[in-house]
Amino acid sequence: MAPFFSIPSILTTIKFFLLFSFLVGMVSAQLSSTFYATSCPNALSTIKSAVDSAVSSEPRMGASLLRLHFHDCFVNGCDASVLLDEERQAPPNKNSIRGFEVIDTIKSQLEDLCPGVVSCADILAVTARDSVVALDGLGWTVELGRRDSATASGVAASSNLPSPFSSLSELINKFSNKGFTVKEMVALSDSSFTTSLQSNCPSTGGDSNLAPLDVTSSESFDNEYFNNLISKKGLLHSDQQLFNEGSTDSLVNAYSTNSESFLTDFANAMVKMGELSPLTGTSGQIRTNCNKAN
Fold it and tell me: Which end of the chain is least crowded, N or C, by CB within 10 Å?
């Protein structure tokens, strides 16, 4: 009987892997944690101060800012397209994502300091990290140098973002399409991406009624989300799919008892998230206002 994998197919797989690794390496080389060291040396401290203030005033804002970065990167890459109306008003985002006013405030402050230098995409990436730290989570090094897209796609948002009604296989497929392993998917599925969902998911109205999906510790970044899943307290269908006698049950169990492991894996996955198809070099633009193209 012929082997399941032929020699040509194995060689093709190896070539694809090498090409993928090369492209990831190119992205890493074009981004740098010191990108603004001379062009806008106070950029990171300005962003951190604004995030700390926003989260101090409303702890749920930390999860909202983290989720903005996720909804941005998961569509066409980390290009701040989520801040443009076409994507912002797409079904997965409308009445769901928030925190735009914090991003606008940060952008205004940075434009005063260094006009036309710091991209909205980088602001989203840094605010995500600083939000986790403000909620007592583990930080990570943010590579910088992303540029902003001049366009957005509501269709791409609808097709790429995971649905709250997704099955486990659908969730795995969505994350796999972006290069994430099942383990990374589980780590990234912590309720920080969905804390700002409207209460009872109303189809109209109720924009101010927010239901924390981590029902025991919604004002801190920890592993309680996984304990909730084990207790069958996942508020969304897609959440409880992670612990429903399936292939991810063991990962949920592991994270529920080992906070350090979860925080470390989450931080590593967020570094990977930030490297999803960024615009660099002369591609894209540096928006003057984050909510509209130049």
Answer: N
